[in-house]
Amino acid sequence: MADAPLIQVAGLKKAYALGDVVVHALRGVDLAIERGGFVAVVGASGSGKSTFMNILGLLDRPNAGRYFLDGEDVSSFDRDRRAILRNRKIGFVFQSFNLLPRTSALENVELPLLYNGRRLATAERHARALSLLEIVGLADRARHAPNQLSGGQQQRVAIARALVNDPELLLADEPTGNLDSRTSVEIMEVLQRLNRERGITVVLITHEHDIAEYAERVIAFRDGRVVSDTAVARRRDASAERDALPPIEPEVQDGPA
Ligand SMILES: Nc1ncnc2c1ncn2[C@@H]1O[C@H](COP(=O)(O)OP(=O)(O)O)[C@@H](O)[C@H]1O
Ligand SMILES: [Mg+2]
Q1: Which atom of ligand 1 is closest in space to residue 205's alpha carbon?
Q2: Could you give the CA distance from residue 131 to residue 181 in angstroms, rounded to a whole number?
Q3: Which of 47, 48, 51, 176 would bridge 224 by S-S if both were Cys, CB 3.0 to 4.6 A apart?
Q4: What distance in Å separates the CA atoms of residue 238 and residue 203, rounded to the nearest whole number?
């Protein structure tokens, strides 16, 4: 369904039972996200952002309401059908990178290829993973393990991994939450480039309003509801910002030896 929005949700509700109390994480969310869009979801901690992302990402199911992905009603899909669709269409990036330790960047990126049912040959898997590490500027770190990489580099490996099955939709939950501002600009440059050049739809969850301005549209959640949905008037351009950053100062020596 090429002309349907990539994402359409209606009356989405999700509640969690915590002992005797019921937490209403989503209280009825209606919205559409166009194919090729770059949307930020903002809101205070506990406002329902991650719950919303887990449903969009087919990791979880709503208690009520409909979710159309690519024009198809996926709200009633069981776990297996959700997993198949998720592998084919969706990539995830998280705040904590979630890379396997003691495993090279290349192998981390290859990992989703082992579960997509396509059974690529080893050489093909390596080539595909390497081409994605190139896109995120890390081809020269392919053999490094996560603990040999900076936080920003680990997040770029995680982005390469998210892309390996060629998703239409990239869901990023606080991807810059553990990164300094300079590194955050570099991560946003990658996300903006993937959106612009490859047409990947990006849904970026953040509680930082300045990070949300890299998106073209900002949807604000409060207490499980959408309270505003606006176009970004002056969208930030991470590529230009990165190029304008001063060079990193050389390490200051501890005085004369
Ligand atoms: N698995 C869970 N079990 C119980 N409560 C949860 C669970 N996940 C989220 N919640 C609750 O749902 C609400 C929304 O959480 P969440 O979607 O994580 O918000 P955000 O990502 O905006 O911080 C919060 O009150 C949170 O405590
Ligand atoms: Mg969250």
Answers
A1: 21
A2: 27
A3: 48
A4: 16
Distance, CA 216 to ligand 2 centroid (Å)? 21
Give the residue whose CA is nearest to atom 1 of ligand 1: 16
Q: Judge if the beta carbon of residue 48 lies within 6 A of ligand 1.
A: yes
User: Is the CB of 49 inside a 6 Å radius of any atom of ligand 1?
Assistant: yes
Q: Provide the CATH number for the domain around residue 222.
A: 3.40.50.300
What tokens were used for 147? 């603990």
| DSSP E strand boundaries for the chain | 7-18, 21-33, 38-42, 64-69, 72-73, 90-94, 169-173, 201-205, 217-222, 225-231
| 253: confidence class by pLDDT, cuts 50, 70, 90 | low
Closest CA to 188 of 176, 178, 200, 199: 176
Nearest CA to ligand 1 atom 8: 51
Does the beta carbon of 46 lie inside 6 Å of ligand 1? yes
Model pTM above 0.85:
yes
In a domain, 213, yes or no: yes
- What pLDDT is attached to residue 203? 98
Judge if the beta carbon of residue 51 lies within 6 A of ligand 1. yes
The per-residue pLDDT of the chain, averaged, comes to 94
Candidate from 16, 27, 49 with most ligand 1 atoms within 8 A of CB, to mutate: 16
Q: 6 near 201, Cβ under 8 Å?
A: yes
Residue 219 included in any domain:
yes
Total of domains in the chain: 1
Cα→Cα distances 161→51, 105, 108, 115, 120, Å: 22, 9, 7, 13, 16
Under DSSP, the state recorded for 215 is S
Nearest ligand 1 atom, CA 47: 22
Q: Judge whether 238 lies within some domain.
A: yes
